Structure formats: structure tokens, C-alpha cells
Amino acid sequence: MRYLLTIYRLFLKELLILFRDKVMLLFIIYSFSVAIYIAAAESSTELNNAPIAFVDEDRSALSQRVIDSFYEPRFMAPKHISYDEIDKGMDSGIYTFVVIIPSGFEKTILKGESTEVQVNVDATRMLQAGIGSGYISAIIMQEVNTFFAKTVPPTPINLVTNYKYNPNLVSSWFGSINEVISNILMFSILIAGASLMREKEHGTIEHLLVMPLNSMEIMVAKILSTALVIMLGVVFALFVVVEIFLEVPISGSVALFLFTTFLVLFSTTSMGIFMGTITNSMPQFGMMLILVVLPLLMLSGGITPYESMPTVLQYVMYLSPTTHFMEAAQAILFRGAGLETVWKHLVAIFFIGLFFFAFALLSFKRSVESRS
Predict the structure, then answer these.
(1) Which of 59, 210, 239, 252 has the largest CB neighbor count within 10 A?
(2) CA pair distance 205, 335, nearest whole angstrom
(3) How many Cα atoms occupy the beta-carbon half-sphere of 306 within 13 Å?
């Protein structure tokens, strides 16, 4: 009971110190609210209201059908222009895309011969240019195939593609969840390490050393206080920002995701404490944080698929708890996976967390002994 009471009092101390640090507190609130909304809503990769015009030299039923297939919200209402208006409209930024449908377009298609449709793109609008070209190609091919299918016997095989989680492929659905997962990894390391660095710089670590406390009690209190703050931020982000403001449905069990988050926090907070023991100032800790967090986020499967990385790097990252957490979190929230699917990742997170906790505790003990 004395041991638990000591941890509880140190736990309250850590929370009071964090709440008095207005800058850190505002940074955490911003990152689990406004930052998630901006990352999901304002940084969308979808095509939205792209200005497009058509030069219809064929003036057939098929060409009109192709033009009518471009509508909001992907594209603005298509404009009919002449060939001489192309350069003027694109140079002045009125149109991002100008599609030229050649004469004899429908007749050539009905004969089963190939034809060309020219797409002029304003490449100065890089994001719309790259995504829009693919949309235009896919839409024209779909309309031509549908039109051509009416003139030939139907094939015995009809392929139907269904998207289970995100039927409209809205990037905000994935971006918001991935931003929450990334913030968990980043801020757990940041808060735990910053709390230790704050005490080292202010000299309060020496006050703790003269008290009847041991390294385990101090470290466990820092881990639990950081875990509580992160868990509150995650709950707010999921239920308020993601579900209410962004209207993104969560497929899986939030309770299982929170349990997975609690497991990984022992590893990431231990990383933060270890980084705090080997650095002597907050600027050094900030530089160390960049060198550690960015590779973890980039190589754990959140930004690029884990399977697309080199094989050697996959084996190395498999020893990181962030990789297992990323796979388990995405499986739970995206695909609605249950415990029977992600239990291997949970076991891996637990044992890797024990290793990081023991390693950080040993390093923290040595740091405390060197200052005593």
C-alpha cells in the first residue's frame, strides 16, 4: 500500500506540473482536436470542383454522354468551348482541364477501332493535375465501355468492385484515423521525455532524490500520468473530432483500440524517458525526438505500406512496438477486427514494451545514481 500510495502522489504531481505548463497543455489540446480536423479535412487529396472544358468536334450521342458524365463535386459544370479558346482559357487559369473529342469519335468506336482523346492539363496546379488526369481517363473509358457494351453481346463475366470500409474512397476517413494514431506515438514520447527534462533543468529531480523514493516509483508515475493524458486526448479525438465534426464512422471496437493504445504507451513512454536520461537540455531532447519519431512514423506502416519496404527493414521494424500498434490499430478501426485477429500484435506489443521498460528503468537508475 505504501508503494501504491507513493506512485499515486507522484502521479498527481506529474499531472499538476503538466497542467501548469500552459504551452504544452495547449499544444496537446490543439494536436488532438484542430490538428486532426485540418489534417483530415483541409489536406484532402480528393478532386474537388476542378474547372473543365470540352471541345466537342464530334457532336454525337457518345460525345455528349461523355461530357454529361463530368459533374460536381469532382468537377465544375463542363464548359463547351471552341478550339481557338483553349490557350486563352488555360493561360488565364480559367480551366485546369480541356478535353478535345475528335470528329468521328462515335463512328470509330462502333467500328471497334481505336481513337484518341486529347486531354490538356494545367500542370501548374500539381495536385489537381495528377489526380484529375486519372479521373478523366477512368470516366471516359467507363462511358465508352458502357456505350459499346450495348452494341455487342454481353460477356459471361461481369466484375463488380465493392469497397467495404470506405465506398467513396474519401481520404479524410483514412487521414483522420491515421493522424490520431500518429499523435499517440509522437506525444507519448514527447510528454514523458519532456517531464523528465523539465525536472532536470529546474533542479527538482534532486529534490526527489533526497526523498525515500526509488527509480521505479518515479518512472511508473511518469508513465501513468502520460498514459492518462494521451488516453483522454484519444477519446476526445475519436468521439468528438472524428465522429461528430468529420462524420467518419468507426468500424471496430473503440474499447479494444483503447486497450491496444494503453499497451503501446508503456513502450513509447519508456522511449521518452530513456531519451530524457541521455540528453542534458530540452533543445537536445527536441533534436533527439525528431531523429526518433520521424523514422518510427514513416517506417511503421502509417505513411507507406509496411509490405512495400525492403525486406531487411521489415525485419528490423518488426522489433518496434509502433509497427505492431499501427497494424493492430488500423485493423481494429478500419476493418472492424476483433481480439481473435489482433491478439498476436497485442502479445508482441506487451513483450516489446517490457523490454523497453526494463531498458529505460536501468538507464534511469544510472542517471539518478550519477546525480546523487
Answers:
(1) 252
(2) 45
(3) 19
Assigned architecture for domain 52-149: 3-Layer(aba) Sandwich (3.40)
Contact of 276 with 366, CB cutoff 8 Å: no
279 Rama class: left (phi>0) / alpha (psi -120 to 50) / beta: beta
* 139 vs 66: CA distance, rounded Å: 8
Which three cell numbers, joined as nine digits, stand for 235?
477519446
| Contact between 182 and 36 (Cβ < 8 Å) | no
**The whole model's pTM is what?**
0.75
316 C-beta neighbours (distance < 10 Å), count? 13
HSE-up of residue 1 (Cα within 13 Å, Cβ side): 0
- Where do the domains of the chain lie? 2-43+170-371, 52-149
Judged against a pLDDT cut of 80, whether residue 330 lies above it is answered with yes
Mean of all residue pLDDT scores within the chain: 85
Half-sphere exposure of 337 (CA within 13 A, CB side): 19
Q: What is the pLDDT of residues 260-301, one digit of tens each?
A: 999 999 899 999 989 988 888 888 888 888 888 888 888 887
Which ranges constitute the DSSP H helices of the chain? 2-20, 22-31, 34-37, 61-68, 86-91, 105-110, 126-149, 171-202, 204-209, 215-236, 254-278, 282-299, 311-317, 321-335, 339-371
